[in-house]
Specification:
There is one protein chain. This protein has a 6-stranded mixed sheet with strand order 10-14-15-13-12-11. The chain is an alpha+beta fold and 607 residues long. It has 4 domains: 173 residues, HPT domain (Four Helix Bundle (Hemerythrin (Met), subunit A)), CATH 1.20.120.160; 69 residues; 180 residues, Heat Shock Protein 90 (2-Layer Sandwich), CATH 3.30.565; 132 residues, CheA-289, Domain 4 (OB fold (Dihydrolipoamide Acetyltransferase, E2P)). The protein is built from 18 helices and 18 strands. It starts with 7 loop residues before the first helix and ends in a 9-residue tail after the last helix.
Length: 607
């Protein structure tokens, strides 16, 4: 049944507030299971469900009211000390919250589906029975805690439900009359797809709710402004070099130079403000993981303590929206493959409960996210053996690999160390998806592991995908842009210093041998007639790998707006996108990670 609301803004407000409350509920419920005596947390959970119920009643969403009403009743008994928080009770409450999320998703999509809710409600009812076995009364010590906290009057739902009195539970599913000033909800157009998203906390008037589409449009305009700024600065440079040597020309040049600097400053400030508007805490992604870890631990019979650090770390919304799936895969991998069962841990002298640490931090202009466990670690020999058995690698290739490269084999499509496929793993999908998604974000993934002690997966991601600092280089007569975040250092060398080992050009750099890659060969750039004795080597790093990109000249650093090449030129090996320089030329942006992965080792992109 399609829905319609006379006050679309009211409906969107309901969806936004409800989504925010539900996103936080999972985390709060898992925390309550660990600290059942936290009365503030218990009351907060109760208020959240009560608010959703009241707002749903106000708008006439009957199914939602029925589920939230029974859930609220169970929470109220827990709050009063009439029930004990147990994993069994929490399983049912979490199931009810999942159903509430599904019903809200239906409303957001513009249709109310007559979903089956009786099964979930039936699971809640035993906890509302006075003589049920599950309704165990708390012992006196715990009762004292609950007795010290008087049961408050149910707060009125806010903000949508403040205009109407609380609907009695028995009447909650009854249609709301128009005479009661309640908007009729039927045949409504679907609310905006991103109506549930926000820029910041809305607890006071110092913040403003902004539609994500508007932010995206503004970000695009800032990108265009950056390009125009570059163009104007180029004109200024040209004028300074070729302008007439007259007093008028000198005055114009001086004033234009001031203007260029001023616009450059203003543009940078505007860009920074827009980036800050788009920045949201990574907590938006992290807060769903306690629930996932809790459920997996119960399914796998493992005891796991999840520690979350740096959840206040901010990054661009576009990155936040894309890292959820890779992180879920990594957490499932740590839970299933990394951490042992309590008995296995005890047998090896470890504590029964394993630890999984999820952390985020800023590092320069990148965000570093780590998933670390104190489990069994990764066995390189087992990885190598499985990869060979599955035909993913040959003995010759394996012989030339170091331990770090062997660990990277887990990212190959079809790789799995599981002997038997389960609902959680063993199908050879997951880790390859992780690397693919991280690459789409122009990020890298690194592995650290010590056998018997645990593993750590480290993601390094850009703060934003829209504008980057880059190093402009010239390859013969072509200009390329290299993301500055990947550049370690630059060298001016003479070609006679290059050596060839096994068909690979290398350069002796201090106490190491640096493999070289000629961009002129990689991208099939036509050689110019200009003769050069010296050239430049740009050393880029991806995880622990280092390579020297051989270029003709260094043109300097510049901030550039990344432009897509379109779907027909998407996924070009070694190319992350394009940009427009100040003189109007289109320049390709090099993807160092893709370049290394796609190279055949001979300085040319593999077909």
């Amino acid at each position: 049944m399609a829905i319609e609301c006379e006050d679309q803004e009211l409906l969107e407000g309901f969806l936004t507030e409800t989504t925010e409350l539900l996103e936080k509920l999972d985390d709060d419920l898992v925390a309550l299971e660990k600290t059942p005596s936290d009365t503030d947390l218990m009351n907060g959970i109760f208020r959240s469900i009560h608010t959703v119920k009241g707002a749903s009643s106000f708008l006439g969403f009957e199914l939602l009211v029925k589920v939230t009403h029974k859930t609220e009743d169970v929470l109220n008994r827990l709050r009063r000390g009439e029930l004990v928080v147990t994993p069994e009770i929490m399983d049912v409450i979490l199931e009810a919250v999942d159903l509430v999320k599904l019903l809200v998703s239906d409303i957001k999509g513009g249709d109310i589906i007559d979903r089956e809710i009786d099964d979930t409600i039936a699971k809640l009812l035993p906890f509302l029975s006075e003589n049920a076995k599950e309704a165990t009364v708390l012992k006196p010590a715990s009762s004292e805690v609950s007795a010290a906290v008087p049961t408050p009057e149910p707060p009125s739902a806010e903000p949508a439900a403040q205009a109407a009195p609380e609907t009695p539970p028995v009447q909650a599913s009854a249609p709301v009359k128009a005479s009661e000033a309640t908007p009729q909800v039927k045949n409504a157009p679907a609310p905006p797809k991103d109506a549930d998203k926000k820029v910041d906390d809305l607890s006071d008037n110092s913040t403003v709710r902004v539609d994500v589409k508007r932010l995206d449009d503004l970000m695009n305009q800032v990108g265009e402004l950056v390009l125009e700024r570059n163009r104007m600065m180029q004109l200024n440079t040209d004028y300074q070099g070729h302008g007439e040597n007259t007093n008028g020309g000198a005055v114009f040049g001086e004033e234009f130079s001031k203007l260029s600097k001023r616009i450059s400053f203003v543009t940078s400030e505007l860009q920074m403000q827009v980036l800050k508007m788009r920045m949201i805490p990574v907590e938006k992604v992290f807060k769903k993981f306690p629930r996932i870890v809790r459920n997996m631990a119960r399914d796998l019979g493992k005891e796991v303590d999840l520690v979350i650090l740096g959840e206040e770390t901010e990054l661009d919304r576009s990155v936040v929206d894309e890292i959820g799936d890779p992180l879920i895969h990594l957490i499932r991998n740590a839970m299933d493959h990394g951490l042992e069962t309590p008995d296995e841990r005890t047998a090896t002298g470890k504590t029964r409960k394993g630890t999984l640490v999820l952390s985020a931090a800023h590092e320069g202009n990148q965000i570093v996210i780590s998933i670390k466990d104190n489990g069994r670690g990764i066995d390189p020999d087992r990885i190598a053996r499985k990869a060979r058995e599955k035909g993913l690698i040959t003995d010759e290739q394996l012989a030339a690999m170091g331990q770090r490269e062997i660990l990277d084999l887990i990212f190959l499509p079809g790789f799995s160390t599981k002997e038997k496929a389960t609902d959680l793993s063993g199908r050879g999908v997951g880790m390859d998806v992780v690397r693919t998604n991280i690459k789409k974000l122009n990020g890298i993934i690194d592995i650290k592991s010590e056998l018997g002690q645990g593993s750590e997966f480290i993601l390094k991601l850009p703060l934003t995908l829209a504008i980057i600092q880059s190093l402009l280089v010239e390859v013969e007569e072509e200009t390329y842009s290299i993301p500055l975040a990947a550049v370690l250092e630059t060298l001016r060398v003479e070609e006679r210093e290059f050596h060839t080992i096994g068909g690979q050009e290398v350069l002796k750099l201090r106490d190491s041998v640096l493999p070289l890659m000629r961009l002129q060969k990689v991208f099939n750039v036509q050689p110019s007639e200009r003769s050069r004795i010296a050239c430049y080597v740009v050393i880029v790093g991806v995880a622990e790998k280092r390579v020297g990109l051989v270029v003709s000249r260094l043109l300097g650093q510049q901030e550039v707006a990344i432009k897509s090449l379109g779907k027909y030129l998407a996924n070009l090996p070694g190319i992350a996108g394009s940009t427009i320089l100040g003189d109007g030329r289109v320049t390709l942006i090099i993807d160092p990670a893709g370049l290394l992965e796609s190279s055949d080792g001979g300085g040319r992109i593999a077909a």
